[in-house]
Structure formats: C-alpha cells, structure tokens
Design goal:
Length: 277
C-alpha cells in the first residue's frame, strides 16, 4: 500500500518536472497496481495523450479508426530505413568492430572529419551493451567534450529526469550521439560530418540491439530515418531503423528553451516506454 503511494508521489513529481498539469490525488487514491503508475488508461498521464495527434501531419494519415485513439494505442507506422550492414569481405574496421569498447577505441583515434580538430575528448556514448532503450542526440556539447561522456551538461540533466520518469534509470539506457566530436560553438553538425561519423552509430545499434530507439531532435531523427522531414512531422509515428522501432521527440536542449514542449515530449517517451513493454 505505502509502496503504491510512494510510486504515485514519484510519478506526480515527474509529471510536474515534465510540465504536466498539477494533479491532486483524492484521499486514498492508491488502488493502482504498484509498478504501473501512470501507464494505465484513465490515469493522470492519459489526459496528456488525448490531444496531440490532431493537426500533426502523418499522425492522422495512417489512422483508419474513426474514434479518437485510446491512450493505450500506439501511433501509426511511419518511415523505415534499412541501410546496408557490414560487408564480410570489406576491411572497413567499423562495421566489423566486435564490441562497444572496440568502437570507442576507433572513435578515439578517428580523424575522418574536421570535427576532430577542436575536440578535447571524443564522446562515443555509454551504457550497457544489452540496453533495451538507445537514446540518440545530436553531438557533444562543452561539458561532454570536457568529460568524454554523453549528455552530462544541462541538457543531460533533463534527459536523466526524463528517463527516470519512464522508470528507466539512465544507467540502464545506452546514450549516444550522431557525431562523436563536439562541433565548434555547438553548431549543428554538417552533412559530410554526419556521413563520416554515422557508421559508428549504426554499428553501436547493431551491437546493442535495443528494443526501441529514441531520437532526440531533428538531427538524430533525420539521420536515423534518412529523411529531411521536420521533427514536427516525424513525431507521433512508430518509424523503423533496420526493423527496430524509432520514436522521435524534442531534444532536451530545446526543452530547456521551450518548456511548452515538455508535455509533448512526455507523450513521446511514454510511447517509447510502452513499446519496450
Ligand atoms: N546534446 C547532445 O545532443 N548530446 C549531448 O551529448 C549533449 C547535449
Ligand atoms: Fe571521426 Fe566522428 Fe569525430 Fe568526425 S565526428 S572525427 S567522423 S569520430
């Protein structure tokens, strides 16, 4: 019983952090099964998912149901990208790298694009090799470049909270970026830099075999889905990368500037959570 209360309290706090409406629990509202706070239809979070599908291009096109989708429904399928994998007969070391550590070593020595020039540390990514969720951002920022770790600056702190909110502590998630070296002044990585770096990410995904990929921000989404569609158009669909579901949401750095996007982000990460099971 007290377990249920504690979970409910934690859930409401997370909901507040993510910009949800304030909610007051009626007395004794602990009847929810412990371990599933907020994921049941009719719970607080369900209200947040009721609205955002309308008006989003793509969200309605694949939806054949006349009724509004219940909260537990998944969004319609979206794009599918199947880049070719490693060729057994090639001697390119990236697609042959046997482990995440081997990829990190290759990245540490990499000078394939100009981003190597200004870096202090490479930031290959981190997390368990059998993570169920793989999060992809854009590229290292200042703190990441200083430490060699992904998402440890202000955006990273928000990401850590978002992951806690779906009961996936960041230690259980593989977290990485499209480019592994910091772009000068945090500018967006350029097309040729992304093209040079993305084989590392593709191999990381192949090794981790996550159940779900969460693409945070336009650069991650457009790269993983090989499209120029806007982030707004790509949200609210279940895309696929080599068959693995890809959920697209806002970048946490954008959320820091635009708190209005916290609620849609909450909806997106809950979809990712539901896909993990
Ligand atoms: N922003 C990103 O996209 N990645 C990081 O690692 C940090 C901030
Ligand atoms: Fe190599 Fe990627 Fe760094 Fe460019 S950004 S130097 S491709 S590791």
């Amino acid at each position: 019983m007290s377990d249920g209360r504690a979970l409910a309290r934690a859930f409401l706090e997370q909901q507040r952090l993510l910009g949800g409406d304030p909610v007051i629990l009626p007395d004794g509202a602990t009847q929810g099964a412990p371990g599933t706070p907020g994921l049941r239809p009719g719970s607080v979070g369900a209200q947040a998912t009721a609205t955002p599908t309308s008006g989003t291009p793509g969200a309605s096109s694949g939806n054949t149901s006349a009724r509004p989708a219940p909260a537990a429904d998944l969004p319609p399928p979206g794009l599918s990208f199947d880049p070719p994998g490693g060729d057994l007969f090639s001697n390119d070391p990236i697609p042959q790298a046997p482990s995440l550590a081997a990829i990190a070593q290759l990245v540490a020595a990499c000078t394939t694009c100009r981003l190597c020039e200004g870096r202090r540390h490479t930031v290959p990514g981190e997390g368990p090799g059998d993570a169920q969720l793989l999060v992809v951002g854009e590229g290292p920022g200042r703190v990441e470049d200083e430490t060699g770790r992904p998402f440890v600056g202000p955006a990273g702190e928000l990401l850590t909270k978002i992951l806690a909110a779906i009961e996936l502590p960041r230690e259980r998630v593989f977290i990485c970026n499209i480019v592994k070296c910091r772009p000068p002044e945090n500018r967006q990585p350029q097309y040729d830099e992304i093209a040079a770096c993305v084989p590392y990410l593709f191999r990381q995904i192949e090794i981790v075999k996550p159940k779900v990929i969460l693409a945070m921000g336009g650069t991650a989404a457009q790269t993983l889905l090989n499209t120029k569609q806007s982030l707004g158009a790509l949200r609210n669909q279940v895309h696929r990368f080599r068959g693995t579901p890809v959920i697209v949401t806002y970048h946490p750095a954008a959320l820091l500037r635009n708190p209005n996007w916290k609620k849609p982000t909450w909806d997106d990460v809950r979809i990712a959570r539901r896909l993990i099971g």
